[in-house]
Amino acid sequence: MIAARSARRLLWEVLRLVLGLAASQPFAIGGVDAAEQRLVLAVPGIPPIFLSVLPYVADREGFFGKYGLSVEIKPFDTGANAARAVLAGQIDAAMATTPIVIAMDSNANASLVGIYGLESPDWLIGSTDPKIAACTDLKGTMVGVDAVAASRAIALRQMLLVCNLSLADVTLVGLGSNVGAAMIAGQLKVGVLHLDDIPTIERELGHPLTIVMRFQDARPLDHINMLVARADKLKANRDAYVRLLAGLIDANRFLRDPENRDAVAAIATVTGRSEEDIKAALPGFIELDYWPSDSAGLSRDHVQAVIDSEVATGGIKPGVTPVAYEELVDTTVWKDAREMAESHR
């Protein structure tokens, strides 16, 4: 299992030894010549949430190394804190919640730039109590989220608008990425969940979870997450970020191939899920096109919908000019990465 999962990385290490290359020396593999570059990439959740599977596959299968890049993947408790770490210059990039990035750029002139994004949110509100089955049933309930101002709470706020409720109508319980575990333990009945939470909860409870609402039904036009860098760092070291995305493009192709399902499931156990539950959840993510494969995942209509929503719900302070789409995203990095990946398949 380990050998299969790490075959690409092991192959490269063998090549290093055979050719007598030191890790810091220039090298060529897959047609890419470069001195090895290094980036630190933050992912949300401890353990990491499922969106982190893509960079972990890129790392463990050697796709970053293929393009001369060494990536340290660093889990943060929330995407909000990961974005703040990028802004502070502590790390190079982060997968951060889109509304939070928009709010930071608008309210604080943060200059965070999105270079890849997830346009199809998998959020849902789940209930272990069949009596809590509709949006209006949520009034007065305790709802598990990651933190009061973090991504699950933001998703909940947007879903509650469908039935004219607000966060003031529920009691938020901050649990980081452990909302599903708390529901299994009976500590609360309702939580904002990801798709990969469902197989685990249903297996542990022994009965189906009641799906109160899916985010895509409430807001079909939205944006969940951006891979962001600080504008000055992106400008100074753009080539490294192109290589980062090239590795993710290869990883995306790899995880979509059913023949690689076992390898992907083994890698994805970093999320705390069992291989069985991962295999059950992964097809749903692929069907949703959760990790966009044919674009940077930063289309104007999806991103602008979130900007408008942040203005309407107060995420962007009154009187503040919202960040412009052109300032918020840079799709040219992904375009260059795609050319790199396609030329070295």
Summarize the structure.
By secondary structure, the chain is of the alpha/beta class.
Q: Can you offer a commentary on this structure?
A:
The protein contains 17 helices and 12 strands. The chain has 345 residues and is an alpha/beta fold. The chain has 2 domains: 2-120 and 223-343, D-Maltodextrin-Binding Protein, domain 2 (3-Layer(aba) Sandwich), CATH 3.40.190; 124-218, Periplasmic binding protein-like II (D-Maltodextrin-Binding Protein, domain 2), CATH 3.40.190. The longest helix has 19 residues, at 238-256. It starts with a helix and ends with a helix. Residues 1-6 and 12-34 have low confidence and may be disordered.
Low-confidence stretches: 1-6, 12-34
Kindly provide the radius of gyration, computed on alpha-carbon positions and rounded to a whole number of angstroms.
20 Å
The percent of residues in helical segments reads 40-55%
Please give the alpha-carbon distance between the first and last residues.
24 Å
* CATH class identity of the largest domain: Alpha Beta
Provide the spatial order of strands within the biggest beta sheet: 4-3-5-12-6
Q: What is the quaternary state of this protein?
A: single chain
Number of helices: 17
Q: So, the CATH homologous superfamily of the largest domain? A: Periplasmic binding protein-like II
Question: What count of structural domains?
Answer: 2
Task: Give the number of DSSP strands.
Answer: 12
Return the CATH architecture of the largest domain: 3-Layer(aba) Sandwich
Secondary-structure element sequence? HHEEEHHEHEHEEEHEHEHEHEHHHHHHH
What's the rounded overall pLDDT mean?
90
Strand content: 15-25%
Structural class: alpha/beta
Biggest sheet record: 5 strands, mixed
| Gross morphology | globular
